UniProtKB/TrEMBL annotation:
Residues 237-337 form the FAD-binding FR-type domain. It comes from the Bacteria. GO terms for molecular function: 2 iron, 2 sulfur cluster binding; flavin adenine dinucleotide binding; metal ion binding; oxidoreductase activity. The lineage of its organism: Bacteria, Bacillati, Actinomycetota, Actinomycetes, Catenulisporales. Keywords: 2Fe-2S, FAD, Flavoprotein, Iron, Iron-sulfur, Membrane, Metal-binding, Oxidoreductase, Transmembrane, Transmembrane helix. InterPro entries: FAD-bd_8 (IPR013112), FAD-bd_FR_type (IPR017927), Fe3_Rdtase_TM_dom (IPR013130), FNR_nucleotide-bd (IPR039261), MRET (IPR050415), OxRdtase_FAD/NAD-bd (IPR001433), Riboflavin_synthase-like_b-brl (IPR017938). The chain crosses the membrane at residues 29-49, 61-87, 108-129, 149-167, 179-199, 211-231. Its cofactor is FAD. Pfam families: FAD_binding_8, Ferric_reduct, NAD_binding_1. It is found in: Membrane. PROSITE patterns: FAD_FR. This is Ferredoxin reductase family protein. GO terms for cellular component: membrane. It is a multi-pass membrane protein. It comes from Actinospica acidithermotolerans.
Amino acid sequence: MTTTTGQGHRAARPAAASATVLPRPGRTWTYALVAAIALGAILVVSIWWQDTTAASLGNTAGLVTAAGRVLGMLAAYLLLVLVALMARIPVLEHRVGSDVLTRVHRALGEYTVTLAACHALLIIIGYALTAHANPVSETVTLELDYPDVLMATAALGLLIWIGIVSARAVRRRMAYESWYYIHLYVYLAMALAFSHEFANGAEFSTSARNRAIWVTAHVLVAALLVVYRIAVPVYRSIRHDVRVTNMVRESKGVVSLHLTGRDLAKLKIQPGQFLRWRFLDRAHWWQSHPYSVSAAPSDTRLRITVKDLGDASGSLSRLRPGTRVWFEGPYGAFTARRLDPTGGGKVLMIAGGVGITPLRALFESLPGGGGSAVLLYRASDPSELPLYQELARIAQRRGFGLFPLVGSRQANPDPFSAAELRRLVPDLAERDVYLCGPPGLVHAARKGLRRAKVPGRRIHVESFDF
């Protein structure tokens, strides 16, 4: 292991952390989001309760059917929440952070599929008990005699399919494009379920008030999608006219794309954030990929650094200069605004692989010096350290610490143990930690940081695991 460190500047509290216009992102915003989702669920249950009579719960069939109805309403509500979470609403992206939104989305997705499946099962059993029929014949009756139940069955099938491809063991074997486009079917499932809810849901078919509430909620979410996923990106892409200028190969399988545009400062891209990029040539126009800026942006220039992961990212090195780029964003809260304003501005960064890209931009732009920032850069081989020479120059110029942790897992099985982290960074407990890299690295580093008594509020993670 070699070490590059800098000397000569005293640590300074970063102005960006205390004088920012935007509120500091953090757990408070996450708790507020979870509380809002829970409150919505309570309101949905209250709608069901207001339209439920005591007589309908007087026997087993009534109880089972009522349970099926409330689970169906909760599944429909969570489906609406899932879509809203992915609408790229700025207040959520910049305060809660894309990584947290993704985790909430993933957890709620599992609940949604489970609730929807239980809804269908309980309704079939409840109706079968009421009609004194067997569940198989009652299923046939529901599918053939009740309006829109076939569409609801199709919606459930789509949700189960999406749930299967979202499982970690499955999605890690899929190309990003396949995973992404399969998830677009959630909109079709939502439309099919909406029709079923109005046709068969007693809470809506007999109440104009409830129908108005439900329609308003769907219209609002649809409007958020149109504005933030379509209208704003199209407007910004046309206005800022971003184009590819050249490509630079950084290491094996890693290339940097240099982009130019106009009035880019108005986008207010912060180091550490990412955008979704769409390159308008014959091979890439239909694909949209999230990549972080890998250098501090200017008013006319941006840079992203991409690793060949075996999907379309590998062909970006063949883009021609002048290729027009459309984009969404900026997104994410993995920025200097997450620094604890009481912590003195000390930062530890931990990166692996292409996870260096957002940290490279932060490393360049953080205030302070003289060891106020330290970067641990993990790789199995020196050839797997893209942008290292740039980082070394920044460390030398700014007095930051840079530690390349190079070696195989067999030779150094636990480079992020609490003891090793304390040895490399003795004042570890006083620092905010920015962590980005492959899932295995993130897991190991978080475990070591927690054992080293680093407060959870000071560990900031950006995940590249879709």
